[in-house]
Design brief:
Layout (H helix, E strand, L loop, with lengths): L1 H23 L10 E6 L2 E2 L5 E3 L8 E3 L6 E8 L4 E5 L5 E2 L3 H10 L4 E10 L2 E6 L1 E5 L7 E7 L10 E6 L5 E6 L10 E9 L2 E11 L3 E6 L2 E6 L12 E3 L5 E13 L7 E14 L4 E6 L4 E8 L5 E8 L27 E9 L4 E2 L3 E4 L7 E7 L5 E7 L12 E6 L5 E3 L9 E6 L5 E6 L8 E6 L10 E2 L7 H4 L3 E8 L7 H10 L3 E2 L1 E2 L5
Parallel strand pairs: 1-9, 3-10, 17-36, 21-37
Antiparallel strand pairs: 2-4, 4-7, 5-6, 5-8, 8-9, 8-10, 11-12, 11-35, 12-13, 14-15, 15-16, 16-17, 18-19, 19-20, 20-21, 22-23, 23-24, 24-25, 24-26, 27-28, 28-29, 29-30, 31-32, 32-33, 33-34
Length: 518
């Protein structure tokens, strides 16, 4: 009797679940009668004629036309599979994730034709179909980023977050302030991972509770990377792909907020060097500290045998004299546009742990251009970087575009298909080298969003598209920028509670300074 009762309850629960599921999703039908438009549907975000990963979340979109009252979208696989969905009066198309995943799997390496229908005042209109090409290669499922107000005057509410690109799950890695309190007012930045795995990671905490938070093999600690021979604490990091070593720049940085300049904000180094930190021995040493150069943005090659970095020489004042070191940052504003960064690299011997002589890789200064954020593709062939008119703070420079240098042929070219007229800057490779995620302000000029582009085996980028959101309006309503996107194969496993405890309850162990040559 008891067993039968349990079976009955279970059956009722399943039926109720099916009932509510069926009631929760409306079914849509392709209109039988319609007129054909001579243009592609105006979608937000623009997901027309793009290459997508076979494991990407549904590309939910809204139709940008005030005249429509309803939308129906038909996805027809070239190989097999069909998906029909639509919207209500809000014109937001919400795609069923299970059907979407099946359709992508069925058409991996093939095309999906998309037909969008809109109901206007006089009936249905069919827009010109567009194509989604499903790539063979997947994208790394996890993307980490900082969310921050774009002005950078304050850091009252700043956090590091991780998004699962195969669905819409987002979780905080660490937040300083959920509800503002002055004692929690500190900055978090420069998160970085070793070899596309969150097993070993780091980020900085600035101001209150400051230090560098390092996670290795599930254990977290805070260290202080500073000393009399070091300009400041470590700044821009890069993990060695296999060794417990992190290359840092150390930068004395000044900010300027322009009143009349076409760019809203400028960040300039007054001095910068390169450091090497041994996370196993808690030792730090100088790599480069030439007082006549500004070395920044270190990046290891995938084989760990080269350290790439950006460097600039002090610009000249028009009368030919050098800008004095004593000049205040506010007085140096007139010379921001004279800073041009090249990309150089140093050979590294893991056995002797010594660097060789520097060599020029990309000459931007000779063309009165400037490079930042060098990143080498996982196969070691392509050097990806941002190039702009001047300086190194390209996340606010509208002239900034993505460029690559083919290290086999020495050819340099812009990724024109992925670039825009607004700032396209910080970028990360997927671990298979077929996808690039980068920060772009192309949507409104003020807020950077995460964009994805396919990088094919011929070294050509394809049309970039915005990271999908469950609600297409999310990128309009979110008044924060996506900063420093980083791809990983696995999720961050350390808990926010453990990170907070380390940050708040430890002062941080002082790194031992090791003089060069010892």
């Amino acid at each position: 009797m008891k067993s039968g009762f349990n079976i009955t309850i279970t059956a009722i629960a399943l039926l109720c679940g099916l009932f509510f599921f069926s009631c929760g999703r409306r079914s849509y039908n392709v209109p039988a009668q319609f007129t054909e438009a001579d243009s592609v549907a105006p979608l937000y975000p623009d997901y027309t004629d793009i290459v997508v990963p076979p494991n990407i979340a549904p590309l939910n979109f809204a139709l940008l036309t005030g005249e429509a009252t309803e939308v129906v979208a038909e996805f027809q696989g070239t190989r097999e599979g069909r998906l029909v969905t639509g919207s209500g009066k809000d014109l937001k198309v919400d795609i069923d994730s299970t059907e979407w995943r099946m359709l992508l799997t069925q058409n991996r390496g093939c095309d999906i034709q998309v037909a969008v229908y809109a109901h206007l005042g006089n009936g249905w209109v069919k827009f010109k179909p567009h194509t989604l090409t499903v790539a063979e290669e997947e994208i790394d499922p996890y993307l980490s980023y900082r969310l921050i107000e774009p002005g950078y005057e304050l850091y009252r509410q700043v956090g590091l977050y991780q998004r699962n690109l195969t669905n819409f799950d987002e979780r905080p890695i660490y937040e300083n302030n959920r509800a503002f309190e002055d004692k929690h007012n500190h900055c978090v930045n420069c998160h970085n991972y070793q070899n596309y795995s969150a097993r070993n990671m780091l980020f900085h905490v600035r101001a209150n509770h400051g230090g560098t938070v390092i996670v290795r093999d599930g254990k977290v600690r805070k260290v202080q990377i500073k000393g009399d021979s070091i300009l400041t604490a470590g700044v821009y990091p890069s993990w060695h792909p296999t060794l417990p070593l992190v290359a840092f720049s150390t930068n004395k940085t000044g900010q300027a907020f322009h009143l009349y300049h076409s760019e809203k904000i400028e960040v300039q180094d007054q001095a910068s060097d390169l450091l090497l930190y041994d996370a196993e021995r808690n030792e730090v040493s100088l790599i480069l500290n030439d007082s006549t150069e500004y070395e920044t943005f270190p990046c290891w090659s995938p084989d760990g045998q080269w350290l790439y970095y950006c460097t600039a020489l002090e610009p000249e004042i028009p009368d030919g004299t050098i800008v004095p070191d004593s000049m205040k940052a506010s007085q140096r504003v007139a010379f921001f546009e004279r800073f041009y960064y090249d990309i150089r690299r140093l050979p590294y011997d893991p056995q002797t742990k010594r660097f060789g002589p520097s060599e020029l890789v990309v000459d931007c200064a000779g063309r009165e251009r400037s490079a930042s954020f060098p990143r080498v593709s996982p196969d070691g062939r392509y050097l990806l970087y941002a190039e702009g008119d001047y300086g190194q703070f390209h996340i606010w420079h509208n002239s900034s575009d993505l460029y690559v240098k083919d290290l086999q042929t020495d050819s340099i070219y812009a990724l024109a298909e992925a670039n825009s007229r607004k700032a396209d800057s910080y970028h990360t490779w997927s671990s298979n080298g077929r996808w690039i995620v980068f920060a772009s302000r192309r949507m409104d000029g003020n807020y950077s969003r995460a964009f994805i582009t396919y990088f094919d085996c011929d070294g050509r980028a394809h049309k970039a598209f915005c990271m999908p959101q469950r609600d297409p309006e999310h990128n309009i309503l979110l008044l924060k920028s996506y900063n420093v996107p980083e791809l990983t194969r696995d999720a961050v496993s350390i808990s926010e509670k453990d990170l907070r405890q380390c940050i708040y309850e430890t002062e941080g162990e002082l790194a031992n300074f090791k003089p060069r040559g010892q």
